TrEMBL record, chain A:
Family the UniProt entry places it in: Belongs to the SDHAF2 family.
A Pfam short name: Sdh5
Lineage: superkingdom: Eukaryota
Range of residues in the leader sequence: none
Protein name, per record: Succinate dehydrogenase assembly factor 2, mitochondrial
Main location: mitochondrion
Purpose of the protein: Plays an essential role in the assembly of succinate dehydrogenase (SDH), an enzyme complex (also referred to as respiratory complex II) that is a component of both the tricarboxylic acid (TCA) cycle and the mitochondrial electron transport chain, and which couples the oxidation of succinate to fumarate with the reduction of ubiquinone (coenzyme Q) to ubiquinol. Required for flavinylation (covalent attachment of FAD) of the flavoprotein subunit SDHA of the SDH catalytic dimer.
From TrEMBL, chain B:
GO cellular component: mitochondrial inner membrane
One BP annotation, GO: mitochondrial electron transport, succinate to ubiquinone
Record protein name field: Succinate dehydrogenase [ubiquinone] flavoprotein subunit, mitochondrial
Membrane topology: Peripheral membrane protein
Domain FAD-dependent oxidoreductase 2 FAD-binding residues, every copy: 23-418
Binding-site positions, substrate: 256, 268, 367, 412
Entry EC no(s): 1.3.5.1
GO MF entries: electron transfer activity; flavin adenine dinucleotide binding; succinate dehydrogenase (quinone) activity
Keyword line: Electron transport, FAD, Flavoprotein, Membrane, Mitochondrion, Mitochondrion inner membrane, Oxidoreductase, Transit peptide, Transport, Tricarboxylic acid cycle
Catalytic reaction equation(s): (R)-malate + a quinone = enol-oxaloacetate + a quinol; a ubiquinone + succinate = a ubiquinol + fumarate; a quinone + succinate = fumarate + a quinol; (S)-malate + a quinone = enol-oxaloacetate + a quinol
Pfam family, one: Succ_DH_flav_C
Organism: Oncorhynchus mykiss
Family listed: Belongs to the FAD-dependent oxidoreductase 2 family. FRD/SDH subfamily.
Domain Fumarate reductase/succinate dehydrogenase flavoprotein-like C-terminal: from-to ranges: 474-625
Length: 161, 625
């Protein structure tokens, strides 16, 4: 039953990557002209679907997600996700951990995660949920903190390893 | 089961070792690494790709610009004009055989990518759309702006990674994802493979191979402010250094004038194009003094230098007076919202600044490393002696930002970097296919090969000194930022070298806190710090020694280029200076990892193209635009 469910979900996810043919990429303005994107590579060359890791304890999952939050494809995500992880990772429930795992590991274009978090582009249905809401709120930086860099790791050094 | 045994804190820890044999091993899965892995797999080689990141998360994904190629779709074009632009852009430090190779191959490489399925943006007639980019001209600089940058909307980097990764899987490339490569396995001057840590379970893996390709990217993270992801830690350069081999031209670091202070995220030139201005602590629009005509829109290196001088002279902003302000709030909010939407968000998210009310703190920011592992135009890693000249290191190859072929010389042109990745990734695969056949038997490897790497890992895992990884890292970054940034002068560089030396010694006193072996981020970041330090000491020492200004290396005390002839004057009657007396040469740096002592040597620039009849080499000239 679980495997059928997983396949269904993967199928939905694959489907969500098939855009309407004439769709224009939302231009980001400051990145210059962004001509039409046919997304042909994403359609013709699907990557193996992401699958959840089996048999991981929550503790190990947190350790893995910490590494994967801090090491991203571009600086904006490195800073955003490592600060987010510092704030929330250690208190996420199992369900939230799994949502977060999927959010940061399934999308192939790191920029998409940034566009969703900054609300520049709509979030695909498969990623909507508690974690995405937390991330969007966190990104707004309502307290106007200076986010100069990814935090140093030592906030974890409380002998609780 | 074979194990290395670590001996720390009177404990004897077992590190199980798994050995693999492959025809080729590629370290790094960015644009260059994937192109090499794909090319090798396609040619029938049993290939492993060892990467600390999932392939589509390599820093290549950040690239939104495009790939230069003289396809001639927008106007008549010729790769020899692209060749000229690149040689000039490199300030005549680029090797013209490699530049010839890259620019001539560019159209083929782009068409090939298109055939692999990369959906380049198209013109209305269905040809690949090409746009203008800085430094690209027609007719050897005399025909105006060239349009030769091909792109996939604004996600060229992502598309490149997705396409190559997807295709390589069809050829059975073996990916070892989230494996951190520790060191090269060298024996008798030959590279026999790589040893790596599997982060998922803490096991050690030795990848034995006749052909190892390093494609590990740049090392922006040696500086306090860089546009690079936190993954750009120069791992490949460091592995090569620890193997006793030289790195080349590390002093040539490209700066972008406006990265957000601290965070380093790029703030586009478009802001200044829309009317944004740079101001100092006195609220003065200082660019009016440095560039009375162009003002804030002067060329990148001029703006970078001006900002740095203002800070040096005490007119920097903020509590530490160490950055400048980019002011946008004098512009109508409507204009900001419609024409620069991304800027407002980025400024709020990373600087906590509301651009309609306050200025954005900015600083010239490290953006790219022209230097790296020296190779010939075929991707083979080389060493150099005065007696024998260039010599290939058997079994070792390098491509991408990690390598120094050298196509960018002293300064890189925009949209040439993605091109560099695909052309030289492909070159490594072709060269290996030329000199090897799949399934060749491997020469034996000493049973304890890689022992020192594991001992180092073990030592760091249990390190209990007085200085935390993050402390040493920030000391290094601030030293590089203050002493080897845009503005370089002998006295300041020398102070920097001494400080860096002292910081290097503190590595012996390092303290880590995570004693685990599974997904130990603390350990990985400490290994990365070791790698960064090796890059940093070579960069600052090379910069201190180079007494001239060329490309991105700008010395206030030696403002001119020092070539073998004075190209500003008529050449007739001049006597060519011997290589010891001029600076148009490559720096080769090595480090003793135990002491941090840097040794420098020099190597001539290759001034001939691959075929003089097909493509005339460009003799040096004064570089002006």
């Amino acid at each position: 039953m679980l495997s059928i469910l997983t396949e269904l979900v993967s199928g939905v996810c694959q489907a969500s990557w098939r855009p309407a043919v004439a769709e224009l990429v939302t231009t980001r303005g400051y990145k210059g002209e962004a001509p039409d994107d046919s997304r042909g590579d994403l359609i013709e060359i699907p990557l193996p679907p992401w699958t959840e890791k089996d048999g991981e304890t929550m503790d190990i999952k947190r350790r893995r997600l910490l590494f994967q939050s801090r090491k991203r494809g571009m600086l904006e995500n490195c800073i955003l996700l490592s600060l987010f992880a510092k704030q929330y990772l250690n208190t996420m429930t199992e369900h939230q951990l799994r949502q977060y795992d999927r959010l940061i590991n399934e999308p192939s274009n790191d920029w998409d995660i940034y566009y969703w978090a900054t609300e520049a582009q709509p979030v695909p249905d498969v990623y909507t949920g508690e974690i995405m809401d937390l991330l969007k709120e966190f990104t707004k930086n309502k307290d106007q903190e200076q986010r100069l860099d990814a935090p140093n790791l030592e906030y974890l050094d409380k002998g609780s390893q | 089961m074979f194990c290395f045994v670590g001996r720390c804190l009177q404990m004897s820890t077992q590190y199980p070792v798994v050995d693999h044999e492959f025809d080729a091993v590629v370290v790094g899965a960015g644009g260059a690494g994937l192109r090499a892995a794909f090319g090798l797999s396609e040619a029938g080689f049993n290939t492993a790709c060892v990467t600390k990141l999932f392939p589509t998360r390599s820093h290549t994904v950040a690239a939104q610009g495009g790939i230069n190629a003289a396809l001639g779709n927008m106007e008549g074009d010729d790769w020899r004009w692209h060749f000229y632009d690149t040689v000039k852009g490199s300030d005549w430090l680029g090797d013209q055989d490699a530049i010839h190779y890259m620019t001539e191959q560019a159209p083929h490489a782009v068409v090939e990518l298109e055939n692999f399925g990369m959906p380049f943006s198209r013109t209305e007639d269905g040809k690949i759309y090409q746009r203008a980019f800085g430094g690209q001209s027609l007719k050897f600089g005399k025909g105006g702006q060239a349009h030769r940058c091909c792109c996939v909307a604004d996600r060229t980097g992502h598309s490149l990674l997705h396409t190559l990764y997807g295709r390589s899987l069809r050829y059975d490339t073996s990916y070892f994802v989230e494996y951190f490569a520790l060191d090269l396995l060298m024996e008798d001057g030959e590279c026999k493979g790589v040893i790596a840590l599997c982060m998922e379970d803490g096991s050690i893996h030795r990848f034995r191979s006749k052909n190892t390709v390093i494609a590990t990217g740049g090392y922006g993270r040696t500086y306090f402010s860089c546009t690079s992801a936190h993954t750009s830690t120069g791992d490949g350069n460091a592995m090569v250094t620890r193997a006793g081999l030289p790195c080349q031209d590390l002093e040539f670091v490209q700066f972008h004038p406006t990265g957000i202070y601290g965070a380093g995220c790029l703030i586009t030139e478009g802001c200044r194009g829309e009317g944004g201005i740079l101001i100092n602590s006195e609220g003065e629009r200082f660019m009016e003094r440095y560039a009375p005509n162009a003002k804030d829109l002067a060329s990148r290196d001029v703006v970078s230098r001006s900002i740095t001088i203002e800070i040096r002279e005490g007119r920097g902003c903020g509590p530490e007076k160490d950055h400048a302000y980019l002011q946008l709030h004098h512009l109508p909010p409507q204009q900001l919202a419609t024409r620069l939407p991304g800027i407002s968000e980025t400024a709020m998210i990373f600087a906590g600044v509301d651009v309609t009310k306050e200025p954005i703190p900015v600083l010239p920011t490290v953006h790219y490393n022209m230097g790296g592992i020296p190779t010939n135009y075929r991707g083979q890693v080389i060493t150099h002696t005065t007696e024998e000249g260039d010599k290939v290191v058997p079994g070792l190859f390098a491509c991408g930002e990690a390598a120094c072929a050298s196509v960018h010389g002293a300064n890189r042109l925009g949209a040439n970097s993605l091109l560099d990745l695909v052309v030289f990734g492909r070159a490594c695969a072709h060269t290996i296919a030329d000199i090897c056949t799949p399934g060749e038997k491997l020469s034996p490897l000493k049973p304890n090969a890689g022992e020192e790497s594991v001992a180092n890992l073990d030592k760091l895992r249990f390190a209990d000194g007085n200085m935390r990884t993050s402390e040493i890292r920030v000391n290094m970054q601030k030293t590089m930022q203050n002493h080897a940034a845009v503005f370089r002068t002998g006295k300041v560089l020398k102070e920097g070298c001494d400080k860096m030396d002292a910081i290097y010694q503190t590595l012996d006193d390092i303290k880590t806190f995570d004693r685990g072996i599974v997904w130990n981020t603390d350990l990985v970041e400490t290994l990365e710090l070791q790698n960064l330090m090796l890059n940093a000491v070579q960069t600052i020492n090379s910069a201190e020694q180079r007494q001239e200004s060329r490309g991105a290396h700008s010395r206030e005390d030696f403002k001119d280029r020092m070539d073998e002839l004075d190209y500003a004057k008529p050449l007739a009657g001049q006597v060519r200076k011997p290589i010891e007396e001029h600076w148009r040469k490559h720096t080769l740096s090595t480090v003793d990892p135990k002491t941090g002592k840097v040794t420098l040597k020099y190597r001539p620039v290759i001034d001939n193209s691959l075929d003089a009849e097909d493509c005339a080499a460009i003799p040096p000239a004064i570089r002006s635009y």
